[in-house]
Amino acid sequence: MPTPPGRISSGLPPLDDAARAHATRVYRHICRHIEASGGWIPFAVFMDLALYTPGLGYYAAGARKFGSEGDFVTAPEMTPLFGRTVARQVAQVLEQVGGDVVEFGAGSGLLAADMLDELERLGRLPARYRILEPSAELAQRQQQLLRQRSPAMFGRVEWMATLECLGSPAAGFRGVVVANEVLDAIPVHILVWRREGLFERGVALEDDALVWQERPAGQSLQAAAGRIGTVATDAGLQYVSEVSPATTALVGSLARGIDRGAVLLMDYGFPRAEYYHPQRRAGTLMCHYRHHAHDDALFLPGLQDITAHVDFTAVAEAGVDAGCRIAGYTTQAQFLINCGITELLAHTPAEDIAAYLPQATAVQKLLSPAEMGELFKVLALSRGIDVPLLGFVDGDRIGRL
Ligand SMILES: C[S@@+](CC[C@H](N)C(=O)[O-])C[C@H]1O[C@@H](n2cnc3c(N)ncnc32)[C@H](O)[C@@H]1O
Prior knowledge:
The protein is an alpha/beta fold. It contains 13 helices and 16 strands.
């Protein structure tokens, strides 16, 4: 089999031999899967293989991923003030219900380290800080970072590979679940609406290359499309977008597992009416390779992140169907301001330019509507909590879901 073609490689940084060899191994693995499946796989299967195949997938092999030397930068990588601010919301819930913190998809481990620092300062350290991380490679990196950064608290941190981290369903979970930029990394199905009907876009092999190929959508995707309603396919144009049954299943399981507490979901995305807006007719799929964002998801599998925006209405519905309440929904900027990020920034004197400037620049990026402030949202689901959550006291947008 040939090396996978770098179709959109113009404009992207050149690949070294090791990277090309790795992409070829991932490509071969995916080809075998396509052949074993009769020549076609749904995009969600492709995304799962490209991101999570143990030892090969983007999140499950050795690539740098996070930070300036990786492919993208997440909020916890930009400033410790993000994790410290989120910790204030976590502390408020822990004060109400006690219990543990569970973090989903902890990336480099920085969010955990920053939250633990702040929870200690606030006198609200949970007995256990559990991390659910499907990638063994990332779990190892998180352990290294937390052992080094937080040796006194390391004993409280536990790693789990499954939802058992919420405890037995009978006992129920008490505490807070946090997930930052996790839902966008969960596999999505691609739907194509045309006048002739609804199709699913998947991946096939043609002349030893990965190609897009469509099949009529099956029953469960027809049902998902039914919940979305009418999209703008007029004038014979097609409308392409994504749905993520895996995301709603995950949120449903999480919400069902909670006895008293809250789930805080932070990610980029929109309510349904904006997600499936007539102007967004090419969908929201996005790939990240060395700080270049593009939309060719078949490019060098295993070497790049593949993401889709989050339909927060679908996520909220999954939580409500599982018996939780929507405790808040707002922009990341509003949530961070409500939780006091500017106060935390003010603890560094502005005269100390070397310390202040990088923090102020990062906070500006987190809050600016043109950067991460408006596109990123925070959704809180809760059960058994009766106080308004700190992060949503001003600017709640539940009505837009
Ligand atoms: C874009 S990274 C975000 C990392 C980190 N939260 C941050 O903000 O820097 C996505 C993370 O989600 C994890 N992940 C993907 N699917 C998951 C799932 N079903 N449950 C828990 N974590 C998951 C990945 O392994 C990875 O750690």
